[in-house]
Design brief:
The structure holds two protein chains of two kinds. Chain A is an alpha+beta fold. Chain A has 17 helices and eight strands. Classes of the chains: A alpha+beta, B alpha+beta. At the A-B interface, helix 4, helix 7, helix 8, helix 9 and strand 6 of A face helix 1, helix 4 and helix 6 of B.
């Protein structure tokens, strides 16, 4: 991948490395006295997923070096969590990954519950999984739209947001908010599904199944411009993906079968029948195919849950004050972007002693440093679409 | 290998078909989105029902509720009870998490359907509900982390469960699950 000299430079000091002297074609430099160009892309950039700065070193239009600089949206979520009571941290976790909020709540609640002696009612477990899958669709479909938008296609983002809007309406009817749900609680969920909601969800899911094939597969997958811009771009091997600790779609699009829902099942996922979607190619096009496949699997799961929705309570008995025992709590879930884990250290008081959020975006971002060098400058945007990072999640 | 341009033509056919679909957008200020029973809009307080228990103020993660409490015989029973003479909700801080609504014992604080709010400065966003205005800039709950003293915590931990039978204090930072297994063995 990288030359030895390059790797050494990254190790020594990535940010202050001198610009000159690393041309893609050193012979040309000797002949004409050319030098590379240092350029900063972001933090305010229309196509950047939030606030990310990329320090690029360019040789013509070829990227020689790409150093992502994170931290422009740092909101010290972990420190704030230490000063709040356990239930009051849940709205904070909503704002970590603001495209897939439900998984963020779920991971935190699983971590707290691992410290407590509380039994989650089966209906609450099923509703959690149901809402989680809706949240995943709500995240995957717009991320396909964003990928296409950055490549210059405007139509898919409109179709994607049409779907997102419809799911948001369902979410608002169930949880009370369109994005910051605050629905999954320690011990269960906030409230049962409203009257008639399962039927409405079923109707929507059947409609989405019909619309998915023409609007997101036929429109995009065969398009020559899309294929030319994405096939072979951001290609990586399985070994590299595992080595970098990637999770989620960037890992699965190289062919590694890993999904927390399948391999470390939690909650209602133990009872569901679904496949882990993988692809062999490991490039941007493969990640697009993976996302479409995962949306289809989510639809399949939602149908299964709605078919056998258990009856009963939706809230376990946690007592009036939530005060977990001393010790380490851990919860891991598969969010739309990869493995999301929460580690809580409790000292037996009302507030956590320490909370750590392991967000997939932070880890998946190192991919930029590894695979962008050698690509053209306009290829950075499709590669960002492959990772599909969310600013709130990598900075926390 | 399909002919070049076929995919683009197919895509154009799909977009053409959508031309005849029903519109999915609405003209916002004229046509507003429907709200639901559970929709979390701006907060409001019914001061006649408020018993000044201060629970909403304590639970609020953003410290956006400030209450000034006095004692007053409001219902003519001859006994002076806590009374909220000042009540302010600072909308510039509120994040509509609904924790105060859930904790209120008399359901006097609740969400309305209102979600549009605008002001020229932040102080205008603080809405007063009581007789006497409260300064919203003063933090009602200064951030002091109350920690149980180490000895007390250990004693409480030991007194709680089966661990007391062993006569040992709970070991620090041991997962509950692991501790349980030990108990069973």
């Amino acid at each position: 991948m990288l030359s030895e000299e390059r790797s050494k430079d990254i190790e020594t000091d990535a940010l202050s490395a001198p610009a000159a002297g690393r041309l893609a074609n050193p012979d040309v430099r000797d002949e004409f006295g050319l030098e590379t160009l240092d350029m900063s892309m972001g933090p305010q950039h229309p196509a950047m997923h939030g606030l990310l700065r990329l320090i690029l070193e360019l040789d013509g239009e070829t990227v020689v070096r790409c150093d992502p600089v994170m931290g422009y949206l740092h909101r010290s979520k972990e420190k704030i969590s230490e000063n709040r009571m356990y239930p009051a941290v849940i709205p904070i976790t909503d704002r970590i990954d603001y495209m897939n909020n439900m998984a963020m709540e779920y991971g935190y609640c699983l971590a707290v519950e691992s410290l407590m002696d509380v039994e989650i009612p089966p209906r609450a477990d099923a509703i959690r999984a149901l809402m989680n899958e809706f949240s995943r669709i709500m995240s995957h479909i717009p991320s396909i739209g964003f990928l296409l938008l950055e490549l210059g296609a405007f139509t898919p983002i409109l179709y994607a947001f049409r779907e997102r809007e419809r799911i948001q309406t369902i979410m608002e009817a169930v949880t009370g908010a369109r994005m910051m749900f605050h629905y999954i609680r320690i011990g269960g969920v906030k409230a049962d599904l409203p009257e008639g909601m399962p039927e409405e969800m079923w109707k929507y899911i059947e409609g989405l199944e019909e619309r998915l094939e023409p609007d997101f597969v036929d429109l995009i997958a065969g398009n020559e411009i899309f294929v030319a811009r994405t096939r072979g771009v951001g290609k990586m091997t399985q070994e590299k993906a595992v080595e970098m600790g990637l999770t989620g779609v960037p890992l699965r699009c190289t062919g590694v079968e890993f999904d927390v829902r399948k391999h470390y099942p939690y909650g209602w996922y133990k009872n569901l029948d679904f496949d882990v979607v993988t692809d062999e190619a490991g490039d941007v096009e493969a990640s697009y195919r993976c996302r479409i496949g995962e949306v289809k699997q989510s639809i399949r799961m939602i149908k299964q849950i709605l078919e056998n929705l258990p009856e009963g309570e939706v809230m376990g008995d946690t007592g009036r004050r939530i005060r977990p025992d001393e010790g380490d709590g851990f919860g891991r879930v598969e969010s739309a972007r990869g493995e999301y884990a929460v580690h809580i250290v409790s000292d037996g008081t009302d507030t956590p002693y320490r909370v750590h959020y392991r967000t997939p975006c932070t880890v998946n971002m190192q991919l930029l440093q590894e695979i962008v060098p050698g690509h053209y400058l306009p290829d950075i945007m499709p590669i960002m679409g492959l990772i599909d990072p969310v600013s709130g999640a990598w900075d926390k | 290998m399909p002919q070049l341009g076929q995919g683009i033509l197919k895509g154009m056919g799909i977009t053409l078909r959508h031309l005849f679909d029903r519109k999915v957008t609405r003209q916002y200020p004229e046509y507003k989105k429907e709200t639901f029973e559970r929709s979390r809009g701006m907060l409001t307080v019914d001061m006649d029902r408020c018993i000044a228990c201060l629970q909403c103020m304590r639970i609020c993660p953003d410290h956006c509720i400030s209450i000034e409490q006095t004692k007053r015989d409001a219902d003519g029973s001859g006994k002076a009870k806590p009374y909220a003479i000042g009540f302010v909700i600072d909308d510039s801080r509120c994040m509509y998490c609904s924790l105060c609504v859930e904790v209120c014992p008399v359901n006097c604080i609740y969400h309305t359907e209102e979600f549009e709010v605008q002001a020229y400065n932040r102080l205008e966003l603080a809405r007063q509900f009581g007789e006497r205005p409260v300064d919203p800039t003063i933090d009602p709950k200064p951030a002091v982390k109350k920690k149980k003293p180490a000895g007390k915590a250990a004693a409480a931990g030991a007194g709680k469960g089966a661990k007391a039978a062993d006569g040992e204090a709970a070991p620090k930072r041991t997962p509950r699950r692991a501790a349980k297994k030990d108990d069973a063995a």
